[in-house]
Design brief:
Largest sheet: 10 strands, mixed
CATH architecture of the largest domain: Alpha-Beta Complex
Radius of gyration: 25 Å
Strand content: 25-35%
Shape: elongated
Helix content: 25-40%
Number of helices: 14
CATH class of the largest domain: Alpha Beta
CATH superfamily of the largest domain: Spore Coat Polysaccharide Biosynthesis Protein SpsA, Chain A
Number of domains: 3
Structural class: alpha+beta
Number of strands: 20
Distance between the termini: 65 Å
Length: 439
């Protein structure tokens, strides 16, 4: 059916592989929609060579709903190729790619349709992702990007708000005719993850508008499995995470951006920064299996080729709120090969008698701190922690407990003067008199 003459308002394409314990819940969430399920939602179930009862469950369900369901059985080829097979059968005006181990709220499609019928002419509609903790049965609104859904509905121009990163195609909708017009498909080489972000952001680069709508009350429930068998969780133990995802995912995306626009727009840079921060986070926490020296060298070579396309300020001044100073510092140092600028020392704690303060800082390399208040000041306590992974220095954390009095306290790092940050204010020097300015 041609995309300009859609049979349904929505097409929901689902690639399913060995999801026997969860697929029935997903399918039930579709039939329980407050929107007329049979009249508005086409479901395309692609069994990607499952070896459990996934295919039998999906096929039986398709027989119960023949008017609006397509069932495809194929040899295992991965989620990307399975989704492409489903995409070829789509007949809806808008298309989404739900995962078969997740599920959606009862009014999910109704809320999206209501918003679209109000006249939205942007490129994409994104819905709120809620974690469902399978182990406890609890729900958690803790996604790093949840700030995008502060309002009931918001339309954002990515060129103005590049931090509104959208990587999930499972919880997003685009016009089928626009996706097909660009000749865009999922790339099976992008593995074990980021295939959603790769395709969706290529689509946004090709779209006539960069406007995305974010709907807070259209809720998509992302299942965190007890055994952690999802691609996102298990992918960290697969070698493709450290080559294929970088080469065919991130690098291909930034090169595509340069080809389409002559540059790498900020929203593409922020998407890459957001997704690659998790490598740094796991390095800092030492939660990734160790590399051999050659493997780590090869990985760093790829990452530095990628970050040659990422501007220094896009990292250090990124508006992404979850990026801590250590992550920004380590990302610049390790992936871009640059030392970040010195930030003010943060006054983290003031003693009850106001005679001592704790200050903290993070540097990309070992540094010498010197404190002065009329004369040299020796810290009462000092903790200097270098963070390393596979022999590479990521960053260095510094914490000092310093005596405080009426004489202004100053600081230099490697001979360069640095300020103090307290209660959101910058101070060139710091003393007990500055504490009186607290609200």
């Amino acid at each position: 059916m041609p995309a300009d003459n859609p049979s349904f308002f929505f097409s929901a394409v689902t690639a399913a592989y060995n999801v026997e314990p969860w697929i029935a819940r997903f399918l039930r969430s579709l039939t329980e929609q407050t929107l007329d399920f049979h009249g508005h939602i086409q479901v395309i179930l692609v069994d990607d060579g499952s070896t459990d009862q996934t295919g039998a469950i999906a096929e039986a369900w398709a027989r119960e709903h023949p008017k609006n369901t397509v069932y495809i059985r194929r040899e295992n080829g991965g989620a990307a190729s399975a989704r492409n097979a489903g995409l070829d059968c789509a007949q809806g005006r808008w298309v989404t790619f739900c995962d078969a181990d997740d599920y959606v709220d009862a009014d999910y499609f109704a809320r999206v349709k209501e918003f679209l019928n109000a006249g939205f002419d942007g490129a994409c509609v994104a819905c709120k992702l809620i974690f469902f903790e399978e182990r406890t049965g609890e729900f958690a609104d803790t996604h790093h990007l949840r700030f995008k859904f502060r309002e009931e509905s918001a339309v954002v121009d990515l060129d103005q708000r590049p931090e509104y990163v959208q990587l999930s195609f499972s919880s997003a909708f685009v016009r089928l005719k626009d996706l097909r017009a660009g000749g865009l498909r999922f790339d099976a080489r992008v593995r074990p993850s980021f295939e959603d972000g790769h395709l969706l952001n290529k689509f946004l680069l090709c779209a006539g508008t960069r406007n995305i709508a974010f709907l807070r009350d259209a809720r998509y429930f992302y299942r965190r499995r007890v055994q952690g068998g999802g691609l996102v969780e298990s992918g960290w133990h697969r070698p493709e995470k450290y080559r294929d995802q970088i080469v065919y995912g991130y690098l291909d995306l930034v090169r595509f951006a340069r080809q389409k626009t002559g540059r790498v727009p900020a929203f593409i840079q922020q998407a890459v920064i957001y997704d690659t921060q998790f490598y740094i986070e796991k390095f800092l926490l030492q939660t990734i299996p160790s590399f051999s020296p050659q493997e780590f060298a090869d990985f760093l070579q790829l990452m530095r080729a990628l970050f040659a396309h990422i501007d220094r300020d896009q990292v250090f001044l990124s508006p992404l709120p979850m990026l801590s100073v250590p992550i920004r510092t380590a990302m610049l140092h390790v992936f871009k090969g640059e030392l970040p600028p010195l930030l003010p020392l943060e006054v983290e704690e003031v003693s009850a008698d106001q005679r001592a303060i704790w200050v903290g800082a993070c540097t990309g390399a070992h540094a010498v701190f010197h404190f002065h208040a009329g004369s040299d000041v020796t810290p009462l306590e000092a903790y200097i922690v270098p963070y390393e992974f596979c022999g590479a220095l990521l960053c260095v954390s510094h914490r000092f407990r310093l005596p405080l009095g009426r004489t202004p306290l100053s600081c230099t790092v490697d001979g360069q003067a640095v300020d103090f940050l307290h209660q959101g204010k910058i101070f060139h020097t710091f003393s007990t008199a500055d504490l009186a300015q607290e609200p």
